[in-house]
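User: Please run a holo structure prediction.
Assistant: Happy to. Please share the sequence and the ligand.
User: Here you go; the ligand is magnesium ion.
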Amino acid sequence: MNKWYGRDSGLVRAVDEVDLDVPAGQAVAIMGPSGCGKSSLLHLLGGLQRPSDGEVWLAGRRIDTLSEGALARLRRDSVGFVFQSFHLMDELTAVENVELAALLAGQSPRRARRRALELLDRVGLADRATHLPSALSGGQRQRVAIARALSNEPLVVLADEPTGNLDSAATVEVLRLFEELRVAGQTLVVVTHDARIAAVADRVISMRDGSFADDSWLAGTGTIYGGGR
Ligand SMILES: Nc1ncnc2c1ncn2[C@@H]1O[C@H](COP(=O)(O)OP(=O)(O)OP(=O)(O)O)[C@@H](O)[C@H]1O
Ligand SMILES: [Mg+2]
C-alpha cells in the first residue's frame, strides 16, 4: 500500500509500497528516523487516513473503502489509539475520560462507569479516578489514555510515540503496561524511538523513506500463527 502527499516535484512517498500483515495477538514496534512514514502508516492502519493506493484490511474486513461514517464507527468500536500528547479532555476526570467513548456509543452510564473503573484499576490508577488530568503526572495521564484506548475492547491498539513526552520513570510504567497487554494477547502496533519498547515487542520493523528496511520476528514469540520467518 502507498500513501503519497503532494504531487509532481513536491511528491512525498510517506508510505511506499508497504506490505504488512499483523497476526492477531502480535505486538509490533515500528522504528525509524523522523519523517520516514511511521505515523502515516499507523494512520492508515487505524482508518484515520486512506491509502493513495492499495488496500487495508482489519480482521477480515476491507476498511479503506468504507464511508466516512463507517470508518468513524470502526475507529470507535474496533481501534484503540494512544498518542504522544495523551489527548485527554482537560475538564474531565480520569474516569470520565475513560468512560466517554462508551457513553457516546450509547452504553448505559452505570455500565460505562463500572468498566472505566475496572480499566483504571488495570492500569494501576484506581485511586486517581476522580483526578483531573492536570493533577496527574505524565505517566499517569498516558496510563489513563491507555485505559481509554482499551475501553472498546479494540481489535488493535495503535500507539504513536506513547512515551515520547515521558521521563524515564514514567516510560518504565508505560512499558510495563504494554508488556502486560502483550502477554494478555492484545494486538499492538507501537511507533517508538525507544529501544526499550522494541525490546518488549514480538516483532520490530525499521522504516526508511516510507519502506521497510528491516522486519524482525523475534525469537521466543509464541503467539504467531501462519508462516513466521
Ligand atoms: N499532511 C501531510 N502533507 C504533506 N506531507 C506530509 C503530511 N503528513 C506527513 N507528510 C510527510 O510524509 C512523510 C512521513 O511523515 P510521518 O509523519 O509519517 O513521519 P514519522 O516517521 O511519523 O516522523 P516523526 O518521527 O517525526 O513523527 C514526511 O516527509 C512528512 O513531511
Ligand atoms: Mg510521527
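The CA atoms of residues 177 and 223 lie 18 Å apart.
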